TrEMBL record:
Statement: the UniProt record of this protein carries the keyword Transmembrane helix: yes
UniProt entry tagged with the keyword Transport: no
GO cellular component terms, A-Z: apical plasma membrane; cell-cell junction; nucleus
InterPro entries, per the entry: EGF, EGF-like_Ca-bd_dom, EGF-like_CS, EGF-type_Asp/Asn_hydroxyl_site, EGF_Ca-bd_CS, Growth_fac_rcpt_cys_sf, Notch_Cell-Fate_Det
UniProt-recorded name of the protein: EGF-like domain-containing protein
Membrane topology according to the record: Single-pass type I membrane protein
Organism, scientific name: Branchiostoma floridae
Listed Pfam families: EGF, hEGF
Molecular-function GO terms, alphabetical: calcium ion binding
Disulfide bond positions: C12-C22, C33-C42, C71-C80, C109-C118, C147-C156, C185-C194, C223-C232, C261-C270, C299-C308, C337-C346, C375-C384, C413-C422, C451-C460, C489-C498, C527-C536, C565-C574
Record-annotated EGF-like domain positions: 8-43, 45-81, 83-119, 121-157, 159-195, 197-233, 235-271, 273-309, 311-347, 349-385, 387-423, 425-461, 463-499, 501-537, 539-575
GO biological process: embryo development ending in birth or egg hatching; embryonic morphogenesis; epithelial cell development; epithelial tube morphogenesis; eye morphogenesis; multicellular organismal-level homeostasis; negative regulation of developmental process; negative regulation of multicellular organismal process
Record lineage: Eukaryota, Metazoa, Chordata, Cephalochordata, Leptocardii
UniProt keyword list: Cell membrane, Developmental protein, Differentiation, Disulfide bond, EGF-like domain, Extracellular matrix, Glycoprotein, Membrane, Phosphoprotein, Repeat, Secreted, Signal, Transmembrane, Transmembrane helix
Record's subcellular location: Apical cell membrane; Secreted, Extracellular space, Extracellular matrix
Amino acid sequence: TGDNCEIDIDECSSSPCVNGTCTDGIDGYTCVCTPGFTGEDCSTDIDDCEVNPCSNGAECIDGVNLFRCNCLSGYSGVLCDIEIDECEPRPCANNATCTDLVASYVCNCNAGYTGTHCEENIDDCDVSPCANSGTCADGINSYTCLCNEGFTGDDCEVNVDDCASTPCANNGTCVDAVAAYLCECVSGYAGTNCTEDFDECSSSPCQNGGTCKDMFDSYTCTCNQGYTGVNCEAEMDHCATSPCSNGATCIDKHLDFECQCGPGYEGVSCETEINECASSPCVNNGTCYDQVDGYICLCMDEYTGTNCESMFSPCESTPCHNGATCTDKYPDYECICPTGYGGSTCSINLPECASNPCNNGGTCVDGIGNFSCSCLSGFEGELCEAQINECERSGCENGGRCTDTYGGFNCDCPPGYNGTRCEVNIDDCATHGCTNGSECVDGIATYTCNCLSGYTGPTCSEDVDECSSNPCLNALNCNNLVDDYMCECQDGFTGKNCEINIDDCENVTCLNDGGCVDGVAGFICNCPDGFSGGVCEIDVDECASDPCQSSGTCMDDVNSYSCQCQTGYAGTNCELDIDECINSPCQN
């Protein structure tokens, strides 16, 4: 400006540089930014956290030409790159070893200690190791048992043998107890240690006035009259010599005995047999024979009875058998036989089967005045004369064909049945070939396999190919499984059928306001003018092509540049040589 354009307009007068120093130029200005700012007017705060300077997951907080790292627990330092040694203050007690962790530590305790800092002495008495009520004193990784009297050993488990000194005299047996012993003395001795001779008469063992005489380890009793036994305890048995004869019973009395005679005997000792024939009991000239406690009469021929008092009847002995009638004809008899019997006493069963009346091998069973026929299988009738048709009576089931046989029948069964009468449906599942856990359903001469999901075929042996319907999209391969399939997806796809295009932009941030465009197994950042790189992280250097001429200095900016021209040059790229004479500055 100026009359002669001699005054350079100061473009810095409006203070265009927000956070920088303004340098005036010809028809322009240049901002030299304070550290931490950038941009044409130094208005953009440089993000010092963009390069992720903080380590170990720390949070970066941007400042002006600086940043601050908020460290996670367990880390320190400007960049959080120093792991804090939690073992440094020696937190572990009782000489335990400290192992440093991230934001933590672990104390490895020595034997006998426990707790987070090994500060607790483990109570070794907690499991009650002392036996027999011993008192436990806890130590460091040890314990001591204070034993009660009578016990010893580390755990008071040993009962002290009080018999070790052999305290029992005179062959007494020592029985050990707890802090004591007991002497079991041999016969004849007493006392704590079996040292005292025992008076066997002190207990007055002799009974019924007997006199006791003490001896070593024994005694002797002198009994009064009428008593006997070691202790005179038994009254003398006068029956011991068996004074009674002929089976009589002896009854002992205080100084004597009494015999109770059996029938037919008498006397003090039952030595005399009584003569029952003395009263002549047999009549009609019968002869009497004396017996013990009785007699026998031998009668004349025509008499009978105990005393021969009755006349004899030949029929009295019932000589006729099988219900025959006896007629008395002394000295003989006559038997009148019923139908079917014969012989003098009607004892013979007349043989009705002698004529072999039964046909077709039937067995004749003789009766009383009659017979019956037991027929072979296949025949019937009173004389087994009729052959039975078993097919008419029983027959075959389930369409079986019946053939009558001698004494039976045969069934020719249709397929799927067996048994005597074709009554059994053959279980075709017993030998079935159903595989892969399928259920077998029995039919008639056949079976059906109910296959589990994923299998097919008559025996379920065929694995259904779930890949046959081509379910996989965007896949490299379909793998057939049992009742399922698995798709191997191409890069960039996911989902059961690889139907989902993975959003590769989900975990990507395009810098500097770049726009992310998802692709297949990849992405593209559409960078704004002035930036490049995979995530638009590179500021394009517009000065790289040296656009400033005439030794001008190039200043790079976002998507632009500016040239600081040498004196005498102007233009965007300092391409104009200023004609200082154009305004005729020279006067006079």
